[in-house]
Write a structure and sequence with these properties.
175 residues; single chain; alpha+beta; 4 helices
Amino acid sequence: MDLTSKEPADIWRLLIPRKQWLFSEDVDPRELIFSYRDKVFVVSEDGSVVSLPKPQHLKKMNVIQLLDLLADEWGTFDYDDHGIFDVGGVLKEMGYIAPTGRNKEDYRIEISNTLDPGMMITTYELKGVSFRFALYHGVLFCHELNQKSDGLYEYEVKQIIKLGEEQVETFQYLH
């Protein structure tokens, strides 16, 4: 699966289990609303993320009512406004933990610097994990590299390759 043409919300859909998605049929496919722990997260089409405390009556609300709360800035947290721009940074801030998963496979993760895409930064393997966990691990590692570079570089998961198959599955991740 090539993710280079995917919207940021599609990347989030690979990370967040479907049971946590909210208002899927009412939201633009280029966006995602999901709940995690005691918050609701809104991923916009440009990849920016805003969270707000989970309303008490969320199950009785419609998407318009939820977005009205967001527009009123009712306890919202805008990750961009706090200098958190990459998926790994948002995941870390929200305390997200991806399970290793039931469908455990071996994956090779390739990290590159998008400012110099020809330069391979690192390659490593994870054994006995799900694709979701491999992607989660990769974006967290990229966040760590981004922090260490102090904004001079922009690291991203270039590929996640499922090992041990005759036909290699390649996944592209773009921030």
